[in-house]
Amino acid sequence: MTREELLQASDSNAVAALRHFTGRAGGETSDTDGVLLAASVHPYCGTFHNAAVRTDPKLDAKLALDQAREFFARRARDFVLWIADHADRDLEEAAQADDMPLRRPPHGAPGMVCTSPLEPAQVPEGVNLVPVQDAEQVKAFAAVVAEAYTAREEPPRAEPAADSLAVGVVDGDPQPPEAALTMFENPAVLLSPETFAVLASTDGEAASCAVLYQSDDVAGVYWVSTRKAARRRGLGDLVTRAVINEGFRRGARVAVLQSSSMGTPIYERMGFVEVTRYRRYLGHYVWTGE
Description:
Blueprint: H1 3-24, E1 28-32, E2 35-39, E3 51-54, H2 61-73, E4 79-84, H3 89-97, E5 102-103, E6 109-114, E7 127-131, H4 135-148, E8 169-170, H5 177-183, H6 188-191, E9 195-202, E10 205-215, E11 218-226, H7 235-249, E12 254-258, H8 264-270, E13 273-283
Parallel strand pairs: 3-4, 5-8, 11-12
Antiparallel strand pairs: 1-2, 2-3, 4-13, 6-12, 6-13, 7-9, 9-10, 10-11
Helix pairs in contact: 2-3, 4-5
């Protein structure tokens, strides 16, 4: 696949996944006029909670930003504006001109791709790896995500030079457990034909999870999570390989993901390569009294 094809695969799957995870969970989406606007059930402001993505790079940046502000102002929500390094420079300039803070990490999340199946990981002794197939397992999946995302262990910050950013850089608020629990409250979020989720359990307790979201011939990897007490045992690698290989089994030409700083070295060892970066700007809701 060409670089342009890989970038298109990365963008299109991320947008489709945002639409799926928000809509199936009972949130609201608006997907017209070149912008996807997704308001989740929970007010948490995060990458897959209350987010705006320009889907038509030809749409005027100010118009895109105005659409996002109007949509979320009606819902009294802060929101995250996605910026694709390869397509949204004008939108980033508009966000900076509007004094929108840039969320850490300042260089963004690597958009990574892999074009062939991976060697399956050996399931460690005492670990049970199973597909998510019923509502109880969906609850277990949600519980792992809820714990993992409130106990992130990112490496020490390496801030860029002061003159490389036009706006301030801020920390995102930790994802509250309730945000994850509402995201997966509807079992269809993980039990749809487009998805394939797995759980790795130790001592009878769900410890790690991941989900495939497949759009056309693109396998997207999402919500890779491991409970803090179960980390550094290879469980994240195990569940990630399982969903990636299922995607290729279903006919994917490429697997894509957006990595955290903590996950990037793991994905690189698997064979993923970075093709772009996705940065996040924070849009604050301002109450006008109207």
